[in-house]
Amino acid sequence: MLQQLNKEVLLKRREALEQVIKRRFIYQPAFSLYGGVAGLYDYGPVGCAIKTNIEQYWREHFIIEEDLFEISATILTPEAVLKASGHVDRFTDLLVCDVKLGTGYRADKIVTETLENRIAKEGDKLAADVKARYLAVIKDVDTFKEDKMKEIIAELQIKAPETGNDLTDPTPFNLMLPTIIGPSTKLPAYLRPETAQGMFLNFARLLEQNGGRVPFGAAQIGLGFRNEIAPRGGLLRCREFQMAEIEYFVDPSEKSTFKKFNKYINLEIPLLSRQLQADAKLHQPYKMGDAVKEGIINNETLAYFICRTYLYLVEIGINPINIRFRQHQADEMAHYSSDCWDAEIEMSSGWVECVGLADRSAYDLNAHSTATGQKLQAARKFKVPQPRQVLQIILDKQKIGKELKKDGMSLIKYVEALSDDEKQDLFEYYQNNEEKIFNIDGKDLTLNRQLVKFEKKTMNVMEEKFIPHVIEPAFGIGRILQAIIEHSFNQRDDPQKTFFKFSPRVAPVKCSILSVVQNEEFDVVIQELASSLKKLGISCKTDNAGVALGKKYARTDEIGIPFAITVDKETLTTQSITLREIETTKQVRVPIVDVPRLILELSSGLILWTDVLTKYPLFAAKEEDA
Amino acid sequence: MLQQLNKEVLLKRREALEQVIKRRFIYQPAFSLYGGVAGLYDYGPVGCAIKTNIEQYWREHFIIEEDLFEISATILTPEAVLKASGHVDRFTDLLVCDVKLGTGYRADKIVTETLENRIAKEGDKLAADVKARYLAVIKDVDTFKEDKMKEIIAELQIKAPETGNDLTDPTPFNLMLPTIIGPSTKLPAYLRPETAQGMFLNFARLLEQNGGRVPFGAAQIGLGFRNEIAPRGGLLRCREFQMAEIEYFVDPSEKSTFKKFNKYINLEIPLLSRQLQADAKLHQPYKMGDAVKEGIINNETLAYFICRTYLYLVEIGINPINIRFRQHQADEMAHYSSDCWDAEIEMSSGWVECVGLADRSAYDLNAHSTATGQKLQAARKFKVPQPRQVLQIILDKQKIGKELKKDGMSLIKYVEALSDDEKQDLFEYYQNNEEKIFNIDGKDLTLNRQLVKFEKKTMNVMEEKFIPHVIEPAFGIGRILQAIIEHSFNQRDDPQKTFFKFSPRVAPVKCSILSVVQNEEFDVVIQELASSLKKLGISCKTDNAGVALGKKYARTDEIGIPFAITVDKETLTTQSITLREIETTKQVRVPIVDVPRLILELSSGLILWTDVLTKYPLFAAKEEDA
Questions:
Q1: Where do transmembrane segments lie in this chain (chains A, B) (predicted)?
Q2: What is the pLDDT of residues A483-503, one digit of tens each?
């Protein structure tokens, strides 16, 4: 019964869905009382519970399954860290402002919207070559640098949309939110733009926890911040957003093979490869084994996480037909990245990037090593000695000691501990330089090349050092939640009767306990049932109000409670209740004594509704009154 | 076997514990690679898992049990909100700086430390009256305002401790971390100092979800930030810290009774009441019913949450003997608060406030109402009409319309919707004032008293409006985690052999799967067992290394894994393993087929180890080799 939920189908339902989101406070703009702040949203009880559930399942699916090290690092991040990572210099969007009012716009957005509007408005009146020019600009505008952007804005006469005023020259605006830590140190800092850096900085500690061995993975669930110039699009583009990220550290010589990938070589996943994009074709399903063999996906480690991501998304209720993995174009990736794929989900606003999977090579560990002078490396250990061309450094320790006194020892220790790659770099550096300055524990120490000799030798070694590569799957929880909500939303024959078909483990509340009519005797049973469910940690909602049962069902359906228990007259005589499933509205009669374990097993996915149907007698409900 | 873990016992173990915390990366200072930032800590895998588990149990114990509305509001908070809440003006500590170096100190801390040092150093040489003076200052210094603090610093010759330099005059330093949202609006904002405001701002939405009825509670788990002047004390005083807060909204006329409190009237909890403190006595156990009856605790609602808090702390592994609830002194409470208690836990650093339980009256809802002109009220609905003295406002609508045109309608609507209390306030205001300015939708509208008449009447009403009061239990997760770690830490006869006696639901990893000796056949069984546990969402750690079993046990003990499965020769013939419990180190022989469900039930607290002992045969292990 899998439905193709394309953009049009989802758009049609959108208005009704928006009403439910607002009426049932699934999420809503934050600070509405104070006029609101763009790009900030509060999750209400329903949205918050779904968020908690998909995070918890992410833990089971990824952290427990792969034995990842989950950590919780801080949001506050000193500037030096983000300088090293490249964010201070490069985490920017081009900003243009209305010259008179100062209103800020994202340059690429305003160019795109202006040109799209002209195309829509002028229609056939627009000359073919002008239209072609517009479309070409729209396609590439997000890659333009300052100069190019300025040129285009002048050439195409782009103005501030509300006023028609001129725009200031495009300037890079850093998207990190700044703050200052402490009254006396006044340490400049930012709110982290991603959770990743915390995992890179803890690499050495985690490597130690793993007994010095790679591969291993770190994981973190937490908030990221992005000072968007002009956020729109609800949960899809927020200034504060929940992420779940994995940094999987691998030996670069081993990342092409991943043992557990064998399970998935026949799994078919829709891919939109670089080639398909170049050929202007649609995504198409590939067997994952073939995708790696044919070189479409760079390595098995990356492919394995694509498979796991796909399975996760399907398991939490994303329609599989509306998932595709899009490969980044060569000019879209960071220079250090060897391959990068986005899990995109089709929603009412089109295909939306919800998970990014990147091979980040050794970029991040290298960056922090360079900035701090601390080594972030692992070692390949051999069972039998291996012959290796080894570059040895021979230091004139006596002279160094004389020159640098106590600091000489630190310098000697530091240089001798360099990795093979770093020794090679140093060797090349001294080909053209007389001296090199090392920053060790905050001191600049100079080492003249006269004090260093290099020797190349073939040696039998028991280990060699290397900087691990990183495969990074990064999940945007808010976007995934929006996708689940859109894909799960349904209307019955009466379109006012809406319901969410959530997977039970994602559902915000697991079951409702209702009475057929308001009645004190029923209330006793309801409270006892609620209490026995709560003891098992199962969330439930009770309703013994004096309204029609149909209305009670409608209320629980509207927030996607998968199972409804109803207490009726028969309950008092036979100690049984009826249990109703949300999508089919079918009901069975179940002894009260069975209920807690039944709901527990249903809501944790241990059994399915179809299992319940075979075990208990169907209950022919009277037509629900409205 | 309950041990009195007083400060001395805990201090003795502290050094060994610190080593484990570091070696196993339970938590560690953040940004160590970059020299570190005081007051920021990263949780490693063990700490992070414990944190997740105590949060999850908090959800079950409070949110599910009380049907609270959990929300997730933003950390970024515009200045206007925190101006209204009082934080911009009053969330400060007094800062003094070294006049030459600029180093900042918290005035109260530096005074205390200086005087304590003098007392310790000079001992008996110190004149009795001087010593008495010092002790009096130490007792009250945290309540001193700027002038008084300045006076004391001058009088007692307090200097910068490292340099002996003079100190600047004390000035209030705001403890919120500032930021700026957006490039063009440049909205001044702060990182929230508590999660509470997000719940107050969403009060109206949540009231609607509850069908307009109070009482109901909101809950939020998330980060708070505090720009401490000079943070020390590890997890006990951080600049970024996880909180779990409840705002329980009640009808002030009903808060003295709370139906579910009846369950706990005989529960004994150690209280340190205002009176006991005044009498310089120790805390003592009270039956909670008596504590309310005797007026020690202000009302049943507050008392109920004290009970639930106590039970929560005990359930997650805090030693009950080391918990007390300390009542705030009258001058320690906010002016609007009618009663306030802290759950304090005894740790190696003494008694530490870990949970605050405050009756905040209507302060917060009032503050945001006043600031925004939006009503944050609930209504008492009556089944039969009730006679009430009602103050009616009669407006001269014609003249208002003439004077204010369109705005007149907004003003009329606004004034007519005032609550009974607000009408009373307005009546009193006009006794002494000619006109009042209302800020409605951002416009200042003036209403002259000539246009308003008041009439008092007895009327039969079906409802009356009121501003709910708030009972606020606020939990510091980091502090509680520190307490659990300290209370659970143990050393065996060999003090190098340490273990944590965590309650299974708090334990970071639920079980380990070990082999007696390294062996490929054993590894197959280990992997199968791990896979079947993971399917149930149970975290486990496998170890098939070639080291002695005793060493493997030591590794899993050190991070508090409660259950260890061992695969041995007999496993291959009888399809059974041994299961060992961490505290007793007793082992039983269990069929493999029983294992997954057994571990699931043990780790969720459905069954206890003693149940396992009665069901399965004891396994006489050979002495563990070290």
A1: none
A2: 999 999 999 989 899 999 999
d(CA A347, CA A92): 27
Helix (H) or strand (E) holding B365: helix B363-372
Could you give the CA distance from residue B315 to residue A534 in angstroms, rounded to a whole number?
16
Crossing angle of helices A107-122 and A146-155, rounded to 10°: 30
For residue B56, count other CB atoms closer than 10 A to its CB: 16
pLDDT for B521-551, tens place per residue? 999 999 999 999 999 999 999 998 889 999 9
Helix (H) or strand (E) holding A105: strand A104-106
d(CA A34, CA B78): 9
How many Cβ pairs within 8 Å bridge chains A and B? 217
Write the pLDDT tens digit of every residue in B218-256.
Answer: 999 999 999 999 898 899 999 999 999 999 999 999 989
Q: What is the dihedral angle through the alpha carbons of B191, B193, B198, B200, rounded to the nearest 10 degrees?
A: -140
- Residue A520: DSSP 8-state: H
Query: Residue B179: how many CB atoms within 10 A of its CB?
Result: 23
SS3 content of chain B, % helix, strand, coil (to 5): 40, 30, 30
The predicted complex's ipTM stands at 0.91
Convert A117-185 into a string of H (helix), E (strand) and C (coil): HHHHHHHHHCCHHHHHHHHHHHHHHHHCCHHHHHHHHHHCCCCCCCCCCCECCCEEEECCCEEEECCCC
* Cα B321 → chain centroid: 20
A435 conformational bin, left if phi > 0, alpha if psi -120 to 50, beta if neither: beta
CA distance B189 to A256: 47
**Does the distance separating the beta carbons of A71 and B31 come in below 8 Å?**
no
Q: Please state, in angstroms and rounded to a whole number, the distance separating the CA atoms of residues A410 and A400.
A: 10
Residue B538 contacts residue B600 (beta carbons within 8 Å) = yes
**Token pair recorded at residue A217:** 């993975």
The number of CA neighbours under 13 Å toward the Cβ of B321 is: 8
Asked if B445 reaches chain A (Cβ–Cβ under 8 Å), the answer is: no
The per-residue pLDDT for A3 is 61
Is the pLDDT score of A626 beyond 80? no
> Residues 80-109, chain A: which have Cβ within 8 Å of B?
80-81, 95, 97, 102-104
Note which residues in 192-251 of chain A have CB less than 8 A from chain B.
198, 201-202, 205-206, 208-209, 223, 225, 227-229, 239-240
Smallest Cα–Cα separation from B70: which of B201, B245, B193? B245
Nearest CA to A312 among A255, A357, A250, A370?
Answer: A357
pLDDT classification of B186: cutoffs 50, 70, 90: confident
Residues of B in contact with A510 (CB under 8 A): none
pLDDT in tens, A77-98: 999 999 999 999 999 999 999 9
Tell me, what DSSP letter sits at residue A573?
H
- A526's torsion region: left (phi>0), alpha (psi -120 to 50) or beta? alpha
Interface of B with A in 479-538 (CB under 8 A): 534, 537-538
Confidence of residue B298 (pLDDT cuts 50, 70, 90): very high
Which amino acid does the sequence have at A134? Y
pTM: 0.91
CA distance A61 to A72: 18
Helices (H), A420-519: 420-432, 477-488
Interacting residues of B379 by C-beta distance below 8 A, sequence separation 6+: B212, B463, B464, B465, B466
What integer pLDDT is reported at residue A625 of this predicted model?
42
Q: Is B69 within 8 Å of A43 when comparing Cβ atoms?
A: no
Residue B358 distance to chain A (closest CA, Å): 23
Give CA–CA dist A341/B410, Å, rounded. 54
